[in-house]
Amino acid sequence: MFLSAILSVLGLGFLVYLLFTLAVYALPFFVAVTVGMYIYDTEAGLLAALVAAFMSGAVTLVLGQIAFATIRSQPIRLAIGAVYALPAGVAGFHAVRGLSEIGGAGESWTLVFAGIGALVIGVTAWARIAALAGPDEEALTASPAFSTARPANDG
User: What angle do CA 82, 58, 140 make, to 5 degrees?
Assistant: First the structure.
């Protein structure tokens, strides 16, 4: 009994870790599945569908990272981050709702937990897409720790 409780907690912890790790890839995965299903429905074959799905997902992820890293306009960066964070939030909502229902929570508490989970996972996806894009060069040059100016020598 005690061992099953420990293994249940470890399994739940692993699922939560996996959810947070894969949250950034919700949009590229959605694009890949959509393109793969479309190509497969056109009777191009299974191999063509798999290749097209993989390529479209990879291109979506890479272009998003490049756009987030190179565009300096804050409203556009906000929109790009939202495009990646919203599908992750939806996936987080459904994952936390499912885990809450397994745990036996009531309907209202299930929705509360799912809403909190969606918010937390969406913010995490936002932070990860920003981290994958790399640091902001303007912030680095404005920081005194990275300043190249030397103090004046008085004597």
Answer: 55
Report the alpha-carbon distance of residue 123 to residue 64 in Å, rounded: 17
Q: Is 50 exposed, middle or buried (0-12, 13-18, 19+ CB in 10 A)?
A: middle
Contact 70, 56 (CB under 8 A): no
Number of CB atoms found within 10 A of residue 47's CB? 8
**Helices of type H across 26-106:** 26-41, 46-70, 74-103
The token pair that represents 1 in the structure block: 């009994």
3-state secondary structure of 150: coil
pTM: 0.69
pLDDT tens track for 18-69: 887 787 788 898 999 999 999 999 988 899 999 999 999 999 988 988 888 8
Give me 21's structure tokens.
């790790």
